[in-house]
Design a protein that fits this description.
Layout lengths: L2 H10 L1 H8 L8 H14 L8 H17 L5 H10 L14 H13 L1
Length: 111
């Protein structure tokens, strides 16, 4: 589902779109929310209504990893990345671990 597909889906499924809008956190920027909303809409059909909270949790894990660099277990990250396959986030931040920063500084000092 591309960004255009999301817009088409929203136009054709007003009730679902309104329900999904209630899941937006007040702290989420438009960019953050649009990506997370796409994640939710892409995967909503795979979750029963009583398991929707699980989908919302997974959407937050994915968004936190992409936008804030939060780290989770390898298995969990693999799952949410698979669920988000095809979602394009333009100008996503790039995060480095402390070890990566130290390593690059050491290489700079040696070179």
């Amino acid at each position: 589902m591309s960004a255009l597909d999301v817009q088409d889906f929203i136009q054709q499924n007003r009730a679902t779109a309104q329900q999904v809008e209630t899941f937006r956190g007040y702290w989420e920027s438009d960019k953050h929310w649009e990506a997370r909303r796409e994640f939710i809409l892409r995967n909503m059909s795979d979750f029963e209504t009583d398991r929707l909270d699980h989908l919302l949790s997974l959407s937050m894990v994915w968004a936190n990893n992409v936008f804030m660099g939060c780290r989770y277990s390898a298995a969990l990250l693999e799952k949410v990345k698979e669920m988000a396959e095809g979602i394009v986030v333009e100008d996503a931040p790039v995060f480095k671990t402390r070890d990566e920063i130290i390593k690059s500084q050491q290489v700079g000092c040696l070179g």
